[in-house]
Amino acid sequence: MVSLLAAAVCFWINTLLLCSHALAASLQPQIPSIASFTSAGDSFQLSPNVRIIVDSAHGLEGAPSALSYAQTFRSDLMSVAGFAHVPPVEVLPGGTGFAGAPVIYIAIDPTMQFALYNGEPTLEGYDFEITEYTYTIKVAAAIGAWWGAVTMLQQVALTAVAGGTNISLPTGAGSDSPGWEVRGFMLDAGRHWFDTAFLSELCIYASFFKLNEFHLHASDNLWNPDFLYGTGNEGWKDLYAAFRFQPPPGSPIDGLVPRLNESWPENEFLMFQQTCSEHGVTVIPEIDTPGHSLAITQWKPELMLSGQPDLLNLSYPATIPAIKSIWQQFLPWFTSSEVSIGADEYDASLGDAYVSFVNEMFGFMQAEAGKSIRIWGTNEPSTEIISKNITIQHWDFPDADIPVQLLAAGYNVINSEQAFLYLDGKYSDGGVYPYTLSLDLMFSGAPDGGGWAPNIFSPNDPSNNTSPNELHLRGGIMALWSDWGNNATTMLEDYYQLAQSLAVVGEKTWAGSGMRASELSRAEFEAAYPILNAAAPGQNLNRVVLPEYGDVVYKYPFTYNTLTTPYASVGPPYTLQFSVMPDTHSSNADFLFSGEDSKLYVANLTFEATGQLYPLGYVLPVGTYTDVEIHATADYTYAIINGDEGNPRYWYTVMDIWGEYMEVANMSFAAPAQQIGGEGFVGSVKDVVLTLGV
Ligand SMILES: *[C@@H]1O[C@H](CO)[C@@H](O)[C@H](O)[C@H]1NC(C)=O
Ligand SMILES: *[C@@H]1O[C@H](CO)[C@@H](O)[C@H](O)[C@H]1NC(C)=O
Ligand SMILES: *[C@@H]1O[C@H](CO)[C@@H](O)[C@H](O)[C@H]1NC(C)=O
Ligand SMILES: *[C@@H]1O[C@H](CO)[C@@H](O)[C@H](O)[C@H]1NC(C)=O
Ligand SMILES: *[C@@H]1O[C@H](CO)[C@@H](O)[C@H](O)[C@H]1NC(C)=O
Ligand SMILES: *[C@@H]1O[C@H](CO)[C@@H](O)[C@H](O)[C@H]1NC(C)=O
Ligand SMILES: *[C@@H]1O[C@H](CO)[C@@H](O)[C@H](O)[C@H]1NC(C)=O
Ligand SMILES: *[C@@H]1O[C@H](CO)[C@@H](O)[C@H](O)[C@H]1NC(C)=O
Description:
Chitobiase, domain 2; 3 domains; seven-stranded mixed sheet; disordered N terminus; binds 2-acetamido-2-deoxy-beta-D-glucopyranose
């Protein structure tokens, strides 16, 4: 808790009252909460002259090394503190600051010990000591230095929001370490295309809340019985399915990826994985077989289980070799010590074939790459048993996947229980999943009214929950699925669903619920989150731009055929106003505006994002000017035509829900701010104004 002192200066930011203290009393509540801190009553003044020093004894060890993390920290610190420059990181045997040149010192002592709640050792912990001129982070290994640095970045962000660039932190000493080893999020990148630029930004954002795993579900297909099982038809050939790792040209498996524009070439994937690693996040790739495998059967129909085109026939002699050949192609890309083979929702009458497949894949992955595997919990009755060396990621009751029983049998378990941790892109059939993770459930959804933590699997049955100290309980991973495909969301809309969800999972997988006095209350979480979301460095998923004056991003009062601006994309809320007169020679492929995240075509005022087209259905007359205002929030985008305020026209998507019904929903588009007009556009655009706010 923050205690208020007499000399505090307070500011209203939106509806939050924030105070900066002449004498900072304690650390501000942050996400995730830190285990302990005792204030010494003085203050440490941060300044742009701050020296960042890494212990030369061990600072260059490991990859990433503490030096590498410190370099990332330095640029994040400039962003969060609003400093134009900070001196380069130094590597020295020690460091003490003085007035005018404070020091942040990273000390590495491999004999230091930190433990998870189950008593297992972890390298992710850190101690820290703040004196008047020196902020020391003491760790056993480089990764602890990163999380210790993120703690400081958050404190700076929470302080800077009230006090501008004069940032003073309380002196004192603290200690912190995670309760669980696995703290992650899964994104369904099989049914929806996400490029590596977006995925990289997401990793950097998640790291700010101390999540350490990005589980990347990289192959899947839409599920629609009309296409899959319609009698006599071959609809399965047309149902959207994708495998995202791009085979090199001429590879024997290149038929697996017919749409190269929706796949990750090796260099792009490696850069993304490296970016994650530099931020303490491990990418856990998932290639899902033998279910969810339409991308494979569209490539090799002979591997299909007859009558179930999205399932592989494990008894067909060529099937397992084909799966292994896919892994063999991509295993050299992956730096994680574990991969997920998916292995969910297969035909339950084929349990023996299923279990022997899973065990065979464990042996294969060990022999081929020395990696362990994870599978989703699933119901595959068999007399054979799945190897205890395989981690089971629980998501669903009440099949054979009962976590307390799995743990008792000696399996390592990761909690992804859907009652708490699942989201679906934009829309949830039957409303079973919320739009963002429910703070009610995360803060008070356990059977006893306590909050969620990786040991909580059921909201209403205490017998299905375990001790936080359970030896085999590895942690928790939330999931955002893409059941309605590319149509449903822009990439940024997926971020809007994840933004707060990742923060709450950060708190609950690092600290837990009912384990530490310092855990955040819901009110503390809700107060800190918007500040930290806005300050999160190293990425710009909010697509924030700083206008030169007032709220006006740009204003072009003249008439143009084409014009390039300094802004690639501008996130909602915004208002884009213009007058447009297309010429009779204007083609449907011409765009009026284009940017990093979206395009707007002349024809039907059609937005494009993720290769999908969203027509407004308004046809601009030729030879005369039409006034258009586009208003967007994170929830919707609409147009006002010729000042007709009473008739807002929304851009919609139409989603096919399991082939049962069509669902209409709003779309939020970032402003296509980079270019006005463009190649091919015939006509003129005038009076263009882009303003922040809706
Ligand atoms: C910064 O804040 C501290 C503590 O509130 C104050 O003592 C100091 O004078 C301020 N410095 C500047 C340059 O404003
Ligand atoms: C699976 O493959 C085996 C071996 O070729 C074949 O005998 C069997 O009929 C196939 N099963 C189905 C359901 O396709
Ligand atoms: C599997 O687990 C057992 C003990 O649970 C262990 O002795 C063995 O080394 C493990 N095998 C592999 C390949 O990891
Ligand atoms: C709890 O576990 C039992 C089996 O032990 C299962 O039948 C039941 O559905 C579970 N309860 C909940 C709420 O998931
Ligand atoms: C990739 O290309 C296909 C075929 O041209 C197209 O339908 C799809 O929209 C493109 N995807 C993206 C993300 O642009
Ligand atoms: C505009 O939309 C209408 C119906 O929404 C459609 O019939 C027409 O083909 C579209 N025109 C263009 C140029 O896309
Ligand atoms: C995508 O949208 C179109 C209409 O624009 C619709 O016909 C189609 O079924 C949708 N696809 C999915 C997978 O929802
Ligand atoms: C779109 O958003 C507007 C404004 O919130 C709302 O009135 C409308 O019902 C939404 N449309 C759909 C299809 O959800």
